[in-house]
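Hi again,

Forgot to attach this to my earlier email, sorry! This is the prediction with NAP bound. I've pasted everything inline since the attachment limit keeps bouncing my files.
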Amino acid sequence: MTSPRHCAVIGNPIDHSRSPFIHEQFAKQTGLALRYDKIRAQAGEFDAVVADFFRRGGVGLNVTLPFKGKAYALARPRLDDSATLALAVNTLYRRDDALCGANTDGGGLLADLERLRASPADKRVLLIGAGGAARGIVAPLLLAGCGSLRIVNRHAERAHALRRQVQEALPTAAARLSSGSLDQSTGDWDVVINATSGSLTGEVPDIADARYAPGALAYDLVYAAGPTAFMVDARDKGARVVSDGLGMLVAQAAESFAIWHGLHPATAPVLAALRQALDAERQ
Ligand code: NAP
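Structure tokens for the complex follow:
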């Protein structure tokens, strides 16, 4: 019998991670022998833990808070475009004996928007938040052809810094990108993405002057059993479609799985199983 391919997710905290469930479902579906662990690392030991994991024959590591920036530094210069543009890595692997990094968050979001039949192409997109998650999705949204993209954030200077960084990296897309504070969300938006962590504590970002255009989508990167406070608020204010980020979580995992194993699992059954598991936990 072949020994299972060893993968893991590394972060701190890590107990809450759904990645083992998702990857085990993908493995079952594709007939792959897989062992997928959770690794809780302390800040000072991240590099050593990663090195040890691959020295022992590990195939792939997912990286989550607070280590995406450290993973970026470690895998430089062997990064794919998504990681280079995001300055963050959520997927580590080895090629030709060198550590490589990718960022599958943006691809995961785009795949989930396709699932929701809400391609961002030519759309007016409002992105709330300028943290790590927002960094991973700005360039993919621009490259997917969104008509305009405005980044707003509680601390406006972080939104401006993110805008400048992406404009430097993608000068041809610069004119479609703008930034501001939360109260500079005025306008009609086809897609509103909440990339803040506010929903974790039931807080809705104050974008009072933003209007949902007819047919608009409101997308919360946070996922939960039941709709988030942002989704409820968006529905009240006229968004036609509202979604949490569970589909993005599964889709970004599918991209990591493909990088590591060369296999492309179906995401729909895994998303359904995960949703069921989340709902069951609530009862
Ligand atoms: P982060 O780097 O800590 O950034 C947090 C962001 O939220 C910042 O923009 C921060 O604004 C803003 N924020 C926090 N509390 C707020 C509030 N009460 N009102 C307004 N803005 C607030 O976190 P992150 O890595 O970007 O992650 C953000 C969320 O996305 C997390 O909850 C994470 O679980 C989720 N996520 C989901 C997926 C997925 O696959 N679905 C992937 C990645 C992340 P300031 O800069 O002004 O402090």
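The first strand starts at residue 5 and ends at 11. The mean pLDDT is 96.

That should be everything now.

G.
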